[in-house]
Amino acid sequence: MKKTLKRLAPVLCTGVFIFSGCAKQQAVKSDQPVAPSATTQQAAPAKVQAPAAPQQAMPMTTALPATSIKAEPIQSQPAALTNNEAALAGALEKIYFDFDSDVLSDAARKTLTENYAKLKATPNVKIRIEGNCDERGSDEYNLALSERRAQSAMKYLVSLGIPASRLSTIGYGEEKPAVAGHDEAAWAKNRRDEFSINK
């Protein structure tokens, strides 16, 4: 009997071991489809979210045009203001300077006084005064002279009552001629200050 038990004991232990091992493997196998998918979602979210991203992108894509459609009417409102501003800029007269001078002539002062009345009627519009020169002189000299011309007009408008915060200046030198030509008639029209809307 002892011999039979000794012979059966290893067989029984092996059977129990195999049976219990198989039972564990079956439990693992039955849980594996659930457990790896859960761990895959946590460990590698990119792989799981990659297919979901296009599905989420669809609602976002439909939401984007809705916001851009809302933005278009907002852009159309400044367009109406731009027309008003453009009308003002077109109403502001240029002033002209003598050769190699940034001193305001009587005619320039009269024009600036007329421009002042137009600017006073539109208190929220900011203006840029653009100084220009004729083609004579070096680039550096003309840039400095054109800036001084713009500053002269600005100082005069401020003295009339336009707040300095509404005005800015820039000098273009000879870069933006109003008239092409190499004679006094062309040069006289190029020595000027122009007024534009400053946004």
Automatic annotation (TrEMBL):
<feature type="region of interest" description="Disordered">
    <location>
        <begin position="33"/>
        <end position="58"/>
    </location>
</feature>
<comment type="similarity">
    <text>Belongs to the Pal lipoprotein family.</text>
</comment>
<dbReference type="InterPro" id="IPR050330">
    <property type="entry name" value="Bact_OuterMem_StrucFunc"/>
</dbReference>
<keyword id="KW-0998">Cell outer membrane</keyword>
<dbReference type="InterPro" id="IPR039001">
    <property type="entry name" value="Pal"/>
</dbReference>
<keyword id="KW-0564">Palmitate</keyword>
<dbReference type="Pfam" id="PF00691">
    <property type="entry name" value="OmpA"/>
</dbReference>
<protein>
    <recommendedName>
        <fullName>Peptidoglycan-associated lipoprotein</fullName>
    </recommendedName>
</protein>
<dbReference type="InterPro" id="IPR006665">
    <property type="entry name" value="OmpA-like"/>
</dbReference>
<dbReference type="InterPro" id="IPR014169">
    <property type="entry name" value="Pal_lipo_C"/>
</dbReference>
<keyword id="KW-0449">Lipoprotein</keyword>
<keyword id="KW-0732">Signal</keyword>
<keyword id="KW-0472">Membrane</keyword>
<feature type="signal peptide">
    <location>
        <begin position="1"/>
        <end position="23"/>
    </location>
</feature>
<feature type="domain" description="OmpA-like">
    <location>
        <begin position="84"/>
        <end position="199"/>
    </location>
</feature>
